[in-house]
Automatic annotation (TrEMBL), chain A:
Coiled coil: none annotated. InterPro entries: HypE (IPR011854), PurM-like_C_dom (IPR010918), PurM-like_C_sf (IPR036676), PurM-like_N (IPR016188), PurM-like_N_sf (IPR036921). Residues 59-171 form the PurM-like N-terminal domain. SUPFAM superfamilies: PurM C-terminal domain-like (SSF56042), PurM N-terminal domain-like (SSF55326). GO terms for biological process: protein maturation. It comes from the Bacteria. Belongs to the HypE family. Residues 183-329 form the PurM-like C-terminal domain. This is Hydrogenase expression/formation protein HypE. It comes from Kutzneria buriramensis.
TrEMBL record, chain B:
Keywords: Iron, Metal-binding. Belongs to the HypD family. One of its GO terms (molecular function) is iron ion binding. This is Hydrogenase expression/formation protein HypD. GO terms for biological process: protein maturation. Pfam families: HypD. It comes from the Bacteria. It comes from Kutzneria buriramensis.
Amino acid sequence: MIDREQQVLDRIERARRRPAKVREERITLSHGSGGKATHTLIEAVFLDAFGNPALAPLEDAARLRIGDARLALTTDSYVVSPLFFPGGDIGDLAVNGTVNDLAVSGATPLYLTCGFILEEGFPIADLTRIAASMRAAADRAGVMIVTGDTKVVQRGKADGCYVNTAGVGVVEGSAELGVAAVQPGDAILVSGPIGEHGVTIMLARGELDIEADLVSDTAPLNGLVAELLASTSGVHAMRDATRGGVATILNEIATDAQVSVIVDEHAIPVKAEVRGASELLGIDPLYVACEGRLVAAVAGDQVDAALAAMRAHPLGTQAAVIGRVEADQPGMVLLNTAFGGTRIVDMLVGDPLPRIC
Amino acid sequence: MRFVDEFRDADKARALASKIAGLCEPGRRYKFMEVCGGHTHTIYKHGLEDYLPEQVQLVHGPGCPVCVIPMGRVDDAIHIARRPEVIMTSFGDMMRVPGSGGNFFDSNAEGTTIRMVYSPLDSLKLARQNPDKQVVFMAIGFETTAPSTAMTLLRAAAEGLDNFSVFCNHVTIIPAIKAILDSPDLRLDGFIGPGHVSTVIGCRPYEFIAGSYGKPVVVAGFEPLDILQSIYMLMVQLHEGRSEVENQYSRVVPWQGNPVALKVINQTMQLRPYFEWRGLGFISHSALRVRDDYASFDAEARFEVPGVRVADPKACQCGEVLKGVLKPWECKVFGTACTPETPIGTCMVSPEGACAAYYNFGRFSRKRVQEVTIG
């Protein structure tokens, strides 16, 4: 009987490796959740249309060689609701998010662009506040916002204010960071407690009548990344854990590098407030967005140096080793539960948290 | 974290597991059904089966509120939601349940407004905020959620809201258990009784299972140690040749249930003569509708509802899975044509559905994993 089950499991894994197909005829909210549906959409629509070697790795930023210079380029749009929340607003989120996408691809972020889509009737005072927090975030990250665009649409055609940022950075050193470089024997680290941004936003919407002393973790990670890369040459890949959370990144690692990732639930840092809210809401912190946390895969013999470097940085004091990479059962993320059992951690399906960033 | 970690203690789990193993008689197999989808979710989420000896098998039951909703009811809901004046609300799990022409997300992409709410009372708020709209709450669930629908109806009546109604799909657990007991396909040794339902109906209604059918029942909580302890209690009963209803979840479930909750259900809802269950077919006296006294809050009275019966897709074996006859992976379309992102059957939709729980959490070879994680 076990054999029959194994045959079914093998058949499922083969089915999962087939190219993604979009079955829906229209966009649904799931396509924006950062989970499986988003991946399918990107692969089936955008990768199909734009396909080129710079895009193909689907990292957080594209790495480009122009003459002797190596650049990293990225863009991100922000539609978070509410616009202002404990610990931040759409403005610093838009700066930090793009800075982080550059940083985790191994680049030093330099310049950002910004585009605003504003709804008729949006208060100028709010816009001023958002712009000020973007400036403050840019100063903190050591980048400049050097060009931008403004569009206004009729009332009812947008929800107040959407922000797009793009960023360019320079890649120094020769290390080819990327999920494809992850190998069996690597350790998996996170730079701090997970899920604070996502839970903060859910509570800030005021729909749940739950109160908790939580603020968003939105922060620029380029400083921490610089310290980490200076401390060791063993870093193989980094991703910032935004939509889809840490679980999605672990799945990307397992799938793209054809390895398995074994995670220890005990070791994952989660604040009690995040755990409590997640338990009440029936969500798993592993899938909840962060906006100032990264996941890194580091060569097993370099893990002490990497952990020490992260912990020495103010944004990484609670960094932890949460798992390891294995060769057996490629494509799978397995969790040793705190209870002492084992389970799979899959990509996020569905849409528990719309418009988190 | 207090009140959580105590119930997930691995040392206590190991101790219970060895007591369970000690009660296994050589050559005998034990098959217990956890009725409630919440239990199924806990079992897979914490990897509880790793603690069970091979002789003890868990079979997943019908107690997943979303899983038992037939396609026709989803179509009916979308039909109501297509009226331009309607804002429909329901619980998040409902959003991805497939109807014959797509789910609520697909329907919204085509122009309806179906919103997710955390409490039916949020629908009243929506009704007050949108006096020119008709807010329809699609109520689903067993006796666990029926009291909150009942309270919402009472409050709507007290406020005299004329733009709120309930599309009632509440079902009752006992007829479903009886249908399973009467099904010839399945031989069970006992039941892990539904914890949340029992907070409302109490433990008495299960006495016929222990009495007439001779199967022990242990009403269980939702933490992994609760379930492991319940399995131990079932094993003890079998070992001692007893067949009784016991309450492991006594910290929450009173033996008599919650008389106030039962009263408000009774006040606002009445039994339907019959109702269609996904996979199980028509079961008499197994569901609730809005009582005639509250007919002005009954969406089925207020709007035209086609009530078309839609046959389950041929390939779908949800019925067998809901009855515990098939393990999720034994279904023909499991994991290939039917996945959480493209569910054919409802068991693949809700996190409480047996197929979704198995696919999301348990889709691996335990043997190989034990070699890797322990080795």
